[in-house]
Specification:
The complex is a heterodimer. By secondary structure, chain A is an all-beta fold. Chain A is 1% helix and 39% strand. Chain B is mainly beta. Chain B folds into 2 domains: 236 residues, Jelly Rolls; 141 residues. In chain B, the strands form 6 sheets. Chain B has a 7-stranded antiparallel sheet. In chain B, strands 10-9-8-3-12-13 form a 6-stranded antiparallel sheet, with no helix packed on it. In chain B, β8 and β9 form a beta hairpin. Chain B is globular, with a radius of gyration of 24 Å. The chains are: A mainly beta, B mainly beta. The interface between A and B is large, with 48 and 39 residues.
């Protein structure tokens, strides 16, 4: 190679990606001060791959606001929110479903987690306070929804206890043919079990009240017990779909010596052999001794029948966790800002994480199934399990909790970081699993993209492009979403306004550290609102159209 | 939104002669020897950077430049692009204010008229232009060749117009303060320059679907982008027009040929329908209704004889898939240069969700005779509105909404819906290897 006298040729060993930190003149050798629409391969660089429509036939007018991977028992699919608050389950890229699975017009975004093939969906929106600060909370007067993955309509998770119109619907209890029981007054009730395994509170209750219409009988110890007038699970509304109730269970108190007049104050147990495996038989004969009553049903009374919506749902130790609840703020409640004008004694729930019973993702105790993160006026934004620890995030806070095999309200709290947090979509999902764990977490923070392996690694992964990152509008970080292709060692991040038509692309084949990640900016003619990985490692981009 | 550039200087050039001889404008007036002409434009400066903002050049090299030099505007006579005479001081550069200028060639003189906002962004009434000075011009026997208007990262421009005559003093007060060309004789060329690729307010209909060549528009350095500086506030409230062209860039022919003539007058509907898109110059908001909206097309009959259609009419498929447009309604009948009014239901939001076709009336004839093919070609929409442009291209929602996936190993282009293929925007590098 010819050289100019007194000038040594500059040998570039690697393309080390985009540098947007400090003065352009300070860019180290091998870095680009502009790296648009390129991708890296080993030591080379090339124009990025093109885009192609994902849905082919029939042509869908989808205005996509959010997309997640949805892993069902049949395989991988997409769950998509479109403008108008409609959620679609797309199983076949050649066939758009005829109907959305859920429509909530006020829904701007949603949190999602799949458990055993079922989708748990929480609708939320972003509010703006008087200072112009944006924050996301679960939709007011909305709830957690469950979808069974079969194109049926999603419905509220949980379920109401058996209800009857009046005392004529009271549960009938009387002696039947000869048998053996313990003597004494017993109160009996019925629990519904839904098609998603949720056990309702005992009933029947008089419709619209908390007045029980349980059955009761002074057992004489010589007869089996005939339970009659057992309520049937109602049809789903609207549309009169089949009832969600799949089974009913008879529950009973042990013998009551001195009845105090309030049957709800006694402990109920599942009666052995008291399960009715259908939703049409209305009487059943049972026979049991009090010593057989070991499986407690009383906690069902404390459970939510409808679970308040939040911004994020996830799992931890087989429990479902939901964070970012709107909370109670009335009456009178004329404001959308849950922290404005709260009367004394009225709670705001933005710092509450609801925690279900283990293995029962719809059973949330109102009493002790919760964690209250430190109250600082900012809502919880994210929740993630990592190496057996539960992490809750606010926009600039990280808290850690460990399960002590007691109720969640008693779990030990550790404030892990008071400077780093995560927005609502700020934890990278890995491949098309819908999960995030790959021995580390990649987390979006105001200060940069963080590698989390129990502690936050410094410097941040966006060290090389710190000026660009710090130039992003912090008020819009809730619009960012991140996916991690761990096979090809690539990361994509969708960006907020005014960078909606751009996306950050990182290649970490040379190592997952601030000085080895190679960055590029991808620019499109569409607004890349939301991203996901499909077919293991193929990036899919959702956009609502140019007018948004 | 006026335009400026992110980097470098962008030139927008108007030439005297069209480059599409086989497809000339419907109405186009050249500027001949000795003929007077005039231009007007608005400029917004963010600092005193020197620039040649406007430049005119004749066929034999005589010309003028309107320049920013050391914080002031000057008009300079040039020859071969170099200064060839004393500079005429026009005014100081107002920062940051909108200023408007009219340069009028009037016989042997160039006159500069100008005015500026006294308060930035608050002209509550049209600006009153005053004569700033006169520059004698020695090249009056020369042929107008071209003129160029420029913008830069610190110079925003908008509402550029060219006339093939010296506009009157009355028109000088009116024309720059309006987007439309409805003052006196319209300009031969005009562009609002509200968006990067906005050639939408060309003053006359043109029969080509090629935007830039069709309107004899040359973008010498097309690196312009939206400026966050708004248009002059007064202009934002004035009606503006926009030409909107089909999404499909090939020949847009809408045709029918029944083969033999009907026994009684019969209307035949086309099977071809087209969609339209804009380039961001039109605000698609519910609060911005049309002042007017017309569908233009060029009716014709195929060569070769046969009974031709007597009338052609607009025909539409609306956003619900319902057919719109009645044959027989005189308001829906195409003439050679007269568009038909769009149905009121084609609102700004729904404009791009509609499909546009045509229908033709063939006269009854007994006995039946062969018919000629009836055509509508060169279709476009012409809308008039008042409002702030969004800069977002108005296109069929379906083209750019939905789910898109990386096409690994596929063509290096982005393929959106409805066959919309666009190049990957300005990659920094195509391909490079290290060590090979």
């Amino acid at each position: 190679m010819a050289t100019v006298r007194d000038h040594k040729p500059l040998v570039i060993e690697n393309f080390d990606g985009w540098w947007n930190r400090g003065d352009p003149e300070s860019a180290p050798s091998g870095h680009f001060i502009q790296a648009d629409n390129i991708q890296y391969f080993h030591s080379g660089v090339e124009t990025r791959d093109g885009l192609v429509g994902y849905i082919t036939d029939p042509f869908p007018p989808l205005k996509v606001l959010r997309v997640y991977n949805y892993v069902t028992m049949k395989g991988h699919s997409l769950i998509v929110l479109t403008v108008g608050g409609k959620i679609w389950h797309i199983e076949d890229r050649n066939l758009l479903p005829a109907n959305p699975i859920l429509t909530i017009p006020a829904m701007e975004d949603f949190g999602f987690v799949a458990i055993n093939g079922r989708a748990y969906i929480t609708p939320f929106k972003t509010y703006t306070d008087s200072t112009g600060t944006k924050y996301s909370l679960g939709l007011k007067n909305e709830f957690l929804y469950v979808y069974k993955g079969d194109q049926s309509q999603a419905r509220k998770a949980g379920g109401l206890p058996p209800m009857v119109a009046d005392t004529n619907g009271q549960l009938g209890v009387q002696n039947d043919v000869g048998g053996l029981t313990d003597e004494g007054l017993h109160y009996l009730a019925v629990v519904y079990e839904t098609d998603t395994g949720f056990m309702t509170a005992p009933g029947p209750l008089i419709q619209g009240t908390n007045v029980p219409a349980f059955g009761h009988l002074e057992f004489d110890g010589l007869h089996k017990i005939l339970v009659s007038n057992i309520p049937l699970g109602p049809l789903e509304q609207p549309g009169g779909f089949p009832s969600r109730v799949r089974r009913r269970h008879i529950v009973s108190t042990k013998a009551i010596l001195d009845f105090n007049g309030d049957p709800l104050g006694y402990q109920f147990f599942f009666v052995p052999g008291g399960m009715i495996d259908d939703n049409f038989i209305q009487s059943k004969v049972i026979e049991y001794f009090d010593i057989d009553l070991v499986s407690d049903a009383s906690h069902l009374i404390d459970n939510f029948s409808e679970i308040p919506a939040g911004v994020n749902v996830n799992t931890y130790h087989s429990r479902l966790i939901i964070v970012g609840e709107f909370g109670l703020s009335g009456p009178p409640d004329t404001t959308e800002n849950t922290l404005t004008g709260l009367p004394v004694g009225v709670t705001d729930n933005r710092s509450i994480a609801r925690v279900s019973h283990p293995g029962e993702p719809e059973a949330f105790s109102k009493i002790d199934g919760l964690i209250i993160a430190p109250l600082d006026g900012n809502p919880l934004t994210n929740v993630q399990e990592f190496r057996d620890i539960l992490y809750l995030f606010k926009k600039t806070r990280t808290f850690a909790y460990s399960d002590n095999n007691d109720v969640p309200a008693s779990w030990h709290e550790e404030v892990l970081d008071q400077g780093i947090g995560a927005p609502v979509h700020g934890i990278a999902t890995v491949l098309d699993t819908g999960g995030v764990n790959i021995d580390f977490l990649v987390i979006i923070d105001w200060s940069g993209l963080m590698l989390f392996n129990g502690t936050y690694a410094q410097p941040e992964l966006t060290f090389k492009i710190e000026d660009f990152w710090r130039g992003l509008d912090r008020n819009e970080f809730h619009n960012m979403q991140i996916v991690n292709d761990s096979i090809n060692k690539k990361i994509w991040i969708s960006l907020p306004e005014p960078h909606r038509k751009e996306m950050l692309h990182a290649n970490y084949q040379n190592g997952m550290a601030g000085n080895t990640v190679r960055w590029a900016r991808w620019i499109f003619d569409i607004k890349a609102f939301t991203i996901a990985l499909i077919e293991t490692d193929r990036l899919v981009i959702g956009t609502p159209g140019p007018e948004f | 939104m006026a335009i400026k550039t992110f980097a470098g200087v962008a030139e927008f050039e108007f030439r005297n002669t069209g480059r599409e001889a086989a497809n000339p404008p419907v109405v186009f007036s050249d500027i001949w020897y000795n003929q007077d002409f005039a231009v007007s434009f608005w400029v917004y400066c963010q600092d005193h950077t020197d620039i040649t903002l406007f430049e005119y050049m004749s066929r034999f090299g005589m010309g003028i430049k309107f320049m920013a030099i050391n914080g002031a505007w000057y008009l300079v006579q040039t020859f071969g692009g170099s200064q060839a005479g004393p500079a005429l001081f026009v005014s100081g550069i107002a920062i940051p204010h909108w200023q408007v200028f009219v340069i009028r060639k009037n016989g042997l003189n160039f006159e500069v008229w100008g005015a500026g906002e006294s308060v930035p962004g608050d002209p509550s009434s049209p600006l009153v232009l005053t004569l700033a000075g006169t520059l004698p011009f020695a090249g009056n026997s020369d042929l107008f060749l071209r003129c160029v208007i420029r913008c830069s990262p610190v110079h925003s421009i908008c509402n550029f117009k060219v006339w093939n005559r010296a506009i009157t003093s009355t028109e000088i007060q009116q024309a720059p303060n309006q987007w439309l060309e409805n003052v006196g004789i319209p300009p031969v060329w005009a562009c609002t320059m509200r968006t990067r690729t906005d050639t939408a307010s060309i003053c006359q209909p043109y029969t080509s679907t090629d935007w830039e060549a069709g309107h004899d528009w040359t973008s010498k350095v097309d690196r312009s982008a939206f400026d966050k500086i708004r248009d002059p506030v007064w202009l934002e409230t004035q009606p503006c027009n926009a030409w909107i062209y089909p999404v499909f860039k090939g020949p847009t022919i809408i045709s029918v040929n029944p083969g033999t003539s009907p026994a009684v007058p019969t209307v035949y509907k086309s099977t071809q329908f087209y969609e339209f898109e804009d380039v961001g110059q039109f605000p698609q908001a519910a609060t911005v209704p049309f002042w007017s909206a017309k569908y233009y097309a060029l009716p014709s009959s195929s060569v070769g004889g046969g009974l031709g259609a007597t009338d052609s009419w607009g025909l539409y498929i609306d956003h619900n898939g319902v057919e719109q447009g009645a044959a027989g309604n005189s308001l829906n009948r195409f003439g050679l240069k007269t568009g038909v009014a769009l149905p009121a239901a084609a609102t700004p939001e729904l404009l791009y969700a509609w499909q546009y076709g045509g229908q033709f009336t063939y006269p009854g004839q007994v006995p039946a005779v062969p018919t000629a093919q009836a055509n509508l070609s060169n279709i476009l929409l012409f809308v008039t509105f008042a409002g702030i442009t969004t800069g977002l291209p108005g296109q069929t929602v379906e083209a750019f909404a939905g789910l898109f996936a990386i096409d690994k190993g596929g063509p290096v282009a982005d393929k959106y819906n409805k066959g919309k293929v666009v190049k990957i925007p300005d990659p920094t590098i195509r391909t490079a290897f290290i060590g090979e």
